[in-house]
Amino acid sequence: MTYQASHDLTQGVFRALADPTRRAILQQLRDGPRGVNALAQGFEMSRPAVAKHLKILEEGRLITVEQRGRERLNHLQPEMLAVAQRWLGFFDAFWDDKLANLKLEVERDDD
């Protein structure tokens, strides 16, 4: 995967995760696919507003949409959360190294 493709994928995932409403929608979808009406019941916003959030989640590839007759079922795609986890994992390693070096310095000063 090229840098640009990887960056675009990461950008879309983090954009989707940036909003608390979208994170709450993902939590609801953890229990199984749901339509817009079922999802909208859990929020104090209009159905079109929820649909806009779903569109951003779909663009970030965190959900897929299945057309079943007149209903559109939204399915969680949890494997895409690995994109965010990998990106954040770099910083885990970075801080682990920094803290290990700090520990060595502190221990060296104790001698």
Describe this structure in words.
It holds the Pfam family HTH_20. By secondary structure, the chain is mostly helical. It is 66% helix and 11% strand. It contains 5 helices and 2 strands. It has helices at residues 3-17, 20-29, 36-40, 47-59, 81-110; strands at 63-68, 71-76. The chain has a two-stranded antiparallel sheet with strand order 1-2. Strand 1 (63-68) and strand 2 (71-76) form a beta hairpin. Helix 1 (3-17) packs antiparallel against helix 4. The longest helix is centred in the last third of the chain and has 30 residues, at 81-110.
Shape: elongated
Tally the beta strands.
Answer: 2
What is the tally of helical segments?
5
Q: What integer is the average pLDDT? A: 88
- End-to-end separation in angstroms reads 49 Å
Q: What's the assembly state of these chains?
A: single chain
Beta-sheet strand percentage?
5-15%
For the largest beta sheet, what order do the strands appear in spatially?
Answer: 1-2
Could you give a short account of the major beta sheet? 2 strands, antiparallel
Helix and strand content put the structural class at mainly alpha
